[in-house]
Fold these 4 entries.
Entry 1:
Amino acid sequence: MLILATGATGKVGRNLIARLLEDSRFAGARVRALCHNRLFPESERVEVVRGSIADRDDVARAIGGVTHIVHLATCKEIPDDVMDVTVKGLFWLLEEFRTSPTARQFILIGGDAGVGHYFYRHDGPVTEKTPHMAYPGCYALSKVLEEVMLEQFGIQYDLNGCCLRAPWIMEKDDFRYTLSFGDDLFGGPDWKAMVPEAEAKRCAQKGTVPLLKDADGRPLKRNFVHVDDLVSAILAAIDNPSTKRQLFNISMDRPVDYGELASYLARTRGLDSIEVASRFHSNWMDNSKAKYLLGWQPEYDLERLVDSAWEYERGVNDPRVVYYPG
């Protein structure tokens, strides 16, 4: 087994490779990391190929002898790059994969941006049959195009591919910084832009957290997944016969309710909260298909997500580096 991992130096890639190398089920597996800007450390079982997925020759060179692809690389809100990296890149990967004599399985990591997450109202749980609904911007559009392209390659060529659709992925102390009113905010919304400037400064100084309200005035529900749970799902999908041409939601069992979150932080850490109005919509990803077909179960709930983020202590060799803001 030779697994090609794109986006190997990101949070999912790093954790996936580490877990895969430790898992006895994959004792004979090797990993090839296709790297662009940052390099993954090589070892006896990990080799690095440098190149861009937007370049067909680089992709062809990386896929030689590969049995599995786990496609993690993506591009955020960068209009100049997104079509080359996300759309053309996936096309070249699929083109080379479908003609490879060794290829067995293609796993794409998608995102709930493809169904609009909190930008649109959903009248029921977000399932794998929920229509695509890209919100404004190029990133969400690219996630829709990825899922559609993989689906069509499956129809055209009976390709053994699957998509694991994840919401916002957390690791280490990420979740703590998603709630910051300061300049150290990770991702969005930008809380300090949603309250008066003086209030934002006060909240940043005191560590006050936002109690986000949805368009109906109720505490907003938003989906998250911890990187450990996503990696477990990827490992469960590898060579699983139930995954062929399937899409799976990979998320916590329940979305984060910002009202429950504020109450838990007040009770366990004495933190104040402030209500923040929005036009966003609550939604709930249904992960039952993944649990049924993959035999997968998320380990993180709201309390564990909070506790792990607040209790994480960074060492001197573990600085907080954000390569993209969300």
Entry 2:
Amino acid sequence: MRRPSSLAVRTTALCLAVAGVMAVVAGGISARLVLTASREITQQSLSDQADVIAAQLAESKLGAGRMNEILRGQGVQVVRRGANGKLAGTDRVAVQAARRAGLARVAEDQPLHGSVQIGGDTLIVEGRAVEGQIAIALVAKVATAEGAARRLLSNVVFALGIGLLVASGAGLLLARRLAGPLRRTAAVAAAMSHGRRDLRVPPEGPRELVEVGESINALANALAYSEARQREFLLSVSHELRTPLTAVTGFAESLADGVVAGDEVPEVGRVIGQEASRLNRLVSDLLDLARLGADDFRLDIAEVDLVSLVGESAQVWHARCAAAEVAFSLEAPAFPVPVRTDPRRLRQVVDGLAENALRVTPAGSPIVLSLRAVPGTAVLEVRDGGPGLSSEDYERAFERGVLNARYDGVRPVGTGIGLALVHGLVTRMGGAIEAGPAPEGGARFTVTLPLAAGMDATQPLSRQ
């Protein structure tokens, strides 16, 4: 594959091409202007000469021989019209040009200003009446003027050549000014692709290049921040994985070594099963979180009665809250609230929010699972009487690992996967979720989903 040319080469070539086009256009226009001006000057000069010579001949101040000698030295031929109307002259072509231009019609009140083409040459003819029927014509080839025109054109071409050299130099300077910052930016980007995050692009060059450099620097900062977050997340996940693995490994070794025997075996088996289930949930959450962004993430959409779904969930969480001495209550309408969603994933969302609430809610404080319908929307809330969050943390509650990093060691925390997964699931199902303070004193997580068509949202709630 042919390697593309560099920016310096392309910029220089472009400048030369522009200068070349300008040279051709300017040269053509200049040539036309020079030739036209030269022809007009020659015509005017020949006209002035004809006036002077005609006047001097009329006054007999200039002999014909002397006149012919002077004019031939200037490249001008003289044609004379006699009293009998015949044309005479020493140059046959000049005589022919005078005849064709109309010397025979020249009179005192009708001078001749003309030009004719003969044999590829342009001849300028200026005729004047002298006395009676006598008249003269001065004939000159335009070629006489073209010598001056060529000199002028050579000067123009020389100037345009200088312009091309200047354009090439300017192109090289511009290319270096552009290519230098771009090369440095490319070098920083290449280093970033190999893992460097400490390099930055210096702000130099034109405004557009400075903006490119600032964008690269912003990308480097974002990558560094993201990777730091990922490392923190992996550390927290590793810790969460290690805890149940340590328990499973320890009890399994106890069973294998015979340290645990008799009546203790069933209890050890239950602990191993619980820790294995915990591991399984954690791994499943990680897999779901990783798959959320994929196009093939599966949702089984169906019409679901939310009242029935939260009722089934409430039975489970009522028992778990009772075991932790936490007061659990359910607020739900006395009529169906149908939505089109994935019931398994929505139950996963409810259980994830309830588990998050139970983790931070102290004994004696409430957890409320609430469902209500407003026009066009089903609103599902999980509220708790725990310590709650700061206003800044509510805004970032669904970012992976943020709450874990913020409250680790301060209160019971999870890996930070659960809320991120809940947010992703709700979004994929076409709903929305937000966090804020709850009237019970803790946190409130609110999920909204569109109601199925034809739903009446004006009926009262029932409390369980």
Entry 3:
Amino acid sequence: MALAPIKTAVIGYGFSAKTFHIPFVSSLPEFELVAISSSQREAVVSDWPTVEHYTTADDLLVHSDAELVIITAPNDVHFCLAKQALESNKHVVLEKPFVTNVSDGETLIALAAEKGLVLSVYHNRRWDGDFLTVKKLIAENRLGELKSFESHFDRFRPEVRQRWREQTTNGGGILFDLGSHLIDQAITLFGLPDAITAQCLIMREGSTNVDYFTVVLHYPNQLTTLHGDLFSAGPNKRFSVKGTKGSYEKYGLDPQEARLIAGVLPVDGSWADETVDQYGRLYGAETTETVSTERGCYQQYFLTIANAIRLKTAPPVSAEQALWNIKLIELAMESSRLGQTLPVAL
């Protein structure tokens, strides 16, 4: 017997909600979009006339019959909104980053466990095609013993913009925004490092938070370097993975974000496919091979969330996993402040 769709509400109607969440909950049969909270009443009513609109998140959490709430509000209110949603007996998906400090994350994890509710964080880049390709190459031992793993998320935005991500000092900046993706991918592949060395800098005139970072995760026989800046105008290096058998080089970002922005709905498996010119290269001592990119699939996150809610299976990203992301961000900031390599205490 088919399971009833999960009544789902979205808090916020900005870029994240419209690009990374609503296209999935409105097109996958496992979900029913029932409510949106936003101050942009006219836009919400115009785009979603059959969906309940609430002016504030508080009103939505009190009056909506949603079972699942997706929170896409600014990072500094993640904790208070998630706490209120859990106290209202609703499952919660938080847009990354989870929270802005470790203590808040621990409080939410304890509350979700007490209530028996699903609490997950949208680390969607685990389902990037290029990341899945790297994961496959490592699993198949195509690169040999890894020695160096380098991952970038760079952009060209040399001037500060009037957006909350670039203005707020609590949870703003690209270490929380872009770095959280890279850290999550690294610990998904390799587990927790032994130590961390970081430079987290403010480099743009008028910037109030981190807009340049290099984070080095130290593993017993390998260095993992994660980098993000806003001064990269040329081709965007994504991965450089080096081992005893060869190296893999990949440029350009996974196309799913651009397709979603363009209005492509994730209703066909091929919606996320890369084109041949986007594929990476695998280099050996005397060989070069074009490696077709694995098919990306952000929808897999939502399908697994549906199973976690209906069938009590594991969520696609646990809150405990996401909390390690915040712990490493805090350690990176401290490493940068002190100019020291810091151990990662398990």
Entry 4:
Amino acid sequence: MFSVFAENLGFSIWVIWGSVVTAMGAAGFGFLAGLGKGDPTAVSNALWLTSTPTLVGSALRVPYTFAIPKFGGRAFTVFSAGMLLFPTLGLVWFVNQPGTPMWVFMLLAALAGVGGGNFSSSMANINFFYPEGKKGTALGINAAGGNMGVAQTQLIVPLIITLGTHLLAKDPAGYRLGITLSVLVWVPFILVAMTGALRCMDSISHAKSDGESYRLALSNRHTWVMAFIYVGTFGSFIGFSFAFPTLLKANFPELAKIGWMSTLGNLAFLGAFVGSFSRPFGGWIGDKVGGAKITFYVFGGMALGIALIMASLSIKNFPLYLLSFLLLFVLTGIGNGSAYRMIPMIFGAEARRRASELGQAPSSAAASAKRQAGAAIGVIGAVGAGGGWVLQQALRLSNSHFGSMAPAFWAYAVAFLVMGAFTWWFYLRSSFAIGRAPSLAHANV
């Protein structure tokens, strides 16, 4: 329970900059002052601050996976939860220093990236405790609990910022108070997570890292093919989750005149909310009809979602814009679940083929496949999260060089179609791409 709780808080702190930047201009920080007017420099600065935690969090996913067998789940959960105090308390201090330059906030945003690493350590810890028959459910609950941290932050932070402006006034001091309260609210929960993990969690002393499985996974082309595919699903989910509040404020500044909309962060939390809830459905339906088939159709739907977003911007229609983005978030959630479903199937199919060629026992092949799939998931998850940084940087560069984010959005649509083609080429053709073994043509991956 405390492992899931700590992971949930990790996601909450990881994504907190997505909501905070929308209020920092009003709090007196000039480098974000023009965000509500779509100023290219302010939008670029905001995307730097929201994308930096994504990059750091994705990079930390691999070492955080190895940390569990080395230090134990209890000790490392206490440590990883405690690390969340640095970006929170640091932000509380510097947001109340109006002259603080942007590079200081960039460092604090980078520190918030530690929350992204919590996903891997939590997943690795839970993996050691549950038998094969219960791992899917346990890991699914853990992943959903983490993803929900994004939605709860994007709902709670704007509410508390609005409270701060009512306690003082709608001036820079009021917004600074609001940001301060919206960050401090997480500190007691972080302390509870640390204390609970220390007192209630167990550590498995015999757990150890499987370096050979990581070596085999890294040398397997399917690890990198699936990493590319996962950039399109999870990278899009986390990238758009971080950027969505900024996109709403930059593209529809008139929403600030609607009091309840502004209080609810222009409904940005709905994206991560529906994306988190649709993820288990992707795994479930992947079990029924095949993970690759669902992933293939998801990419086609995501390209259509981008086209709808661009249509809504061309006519400046906020309801259509919001619904189009919610469709995109739902599809990323389904794609996350279906893509994760593909990984053990792919490695299992390849292991059976190799065992057949070498005359090995099926049980030995199955055990090797599970270890390699587990190692590959860590790598794929890290690369996928890094895709969120690429997505936000593409938005920033498009806005800076073309004065519009439209080129980046259309590039996403093309990328989604390419990823769909990759899915078909490697996993849906009649001759399955792993060794072109006819017996694997309908391997349900």
